[in-house]
């Protein structure tokens, strides 16, 4: 165990911990990981990375669910298979499922109720509401996923 001095002159102990090299192998091998989020600006390869991770994880895990909230629905393009808002088995895999969530659908459902009409009026003033609605849809799917 290493020791050193803190900024206030007191002694501190640095915990011994295994340093993992940043690699896909370490991500795949981490059985404690339940969620992997891939994000970034447009065109940085989120779909490519997500699909690659999901296919590798499907070799190691009992079941993998790949969820996209991208309005462009690029998962369908990547796997050459149409996906919807429900988990669908990816062709050629026994345990890899994919779904593409329509982030506008939950908003449209909410807007059908009278109480939600206020939300519809305020929607343009609430930054990130699309992401909140998409996350709520993801959580409903995850809670119902076996």
Uncertain segments are none
Strand line-up in the sheet with most strands = 3-5-4
- Please report which band the strand proportion falls in: under 5%, 5-15%, 15-25%, 25-35%, 35-45% or over 45%: 5-15%
Helical proportion, percent range: 25-40%
Number of strands: 5
Taken in chain order, the helices and strands follow as EEHHEHEEHHH
* Computed Rg: 21 Å
Biggest pleated-sheet summary: 3 strands, mixed
Q: Kindly name the structural category.
A: alpha+beta
- What is the averaged pLDDT score? 77
First CA to last CA: what distance? Answer: 43 Å
Shape: globular
- In DSSP terms (H or I, runs of 4 or more residues), the helix count works out at 6
Descriptive report:
With 146 residues, this protein is of the alpha+beta class. It is 40% helix and 14% strand. It contains six helices and five strands; from the N terminus they run E-E-H-H-E-H-E-E-H-H-H. It has helices spanning 24-29, 46-60, 74-79, 104-111, 116-122, 129-144; strands at residues 2-5, 11-14, 64-68, 88-89, 96-100. A three-stranded mixed beta sheet has the order 3-5-4. The chain has a two-stranded antiparallel sheet with strand order 1-2. Strand 1 (2-5) and strand 2 form a beta hairpin. The longest helix has 16 residues, at 129-144. The protein starts with a strand and ends with a helix. The mean pLDDT is 77.
Provide a brief overview of the structure.
This protein has 146 residues and is α+β, with helices and mostly antiparallel strands.
């Amino acid at each position: 165990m290493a020791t050193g001095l803190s900024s206030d002159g007191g002694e501190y102990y640095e915990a011994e911990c295994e340093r993992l090299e940043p690699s896909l192998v370490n991500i795949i091998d981490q059985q404690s990981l339940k969620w992997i989020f891939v994000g970034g600006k447009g065109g940085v390869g989120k779909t490519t990375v997500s699909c690659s991770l999901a296919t590798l994880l499907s070799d190691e895990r009992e079941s993998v669910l790949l969820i996209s909230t991208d309005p462009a629905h690029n998962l369908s393009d990547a796997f050459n298979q149409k996906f919807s808002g429900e988990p669908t088995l990816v062709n050629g895999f026994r345990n890899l499922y994919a779904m593409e969530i329509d982030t506008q659908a939950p908003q449209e459902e909410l807007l059908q109720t009278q109480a939600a009409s206020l939300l519809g009026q305020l929607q343009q003033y609430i930054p990130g509401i699309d992401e909140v609605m998409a996350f709520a849809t993801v959580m409903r799917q995850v809670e119902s996923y076996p």
